Amino acid sequence: MNYFVSTRDAERLVIGTVHGVLELGGAVDFSTAVRQVAVPLRYDVLVDFRNCQVAISLHGLFQLPDLLQGQALQWQHDVLVPHLVKATDLDMFLNFEAVVNRAGARYKFFTEEADAMHWLAEQRSVRY
To answer: For the whole model, what pTM was predicted?
Structure first.
């Protein structure tokens, strides 16, 4: 698995993109790398999983919020985290969305970036 983390400062947004096979341990490493950029800047995050193969079971996805809560670097702001996923993975991630949002995160899953950015703009208008 390879991942890339960049910023779009004008949009106050960190972009995290994953290529290759995404496994549970890699997801935790990726989250750590994204948080290292987003937390100090207090930016929201756009995650792009469209070019990766998700090799995490539904059970593994349900474990992920607890694993991420154990990270040393926690969100210090009301972060919004839209994710872009392949249409074939959307149902699995919608189940995950319900779990992480009950844990206090603000994740939402989309297949199109325009939809994700529209949701982000709406949520930001409510937040600010």
So the answer is: 0.89
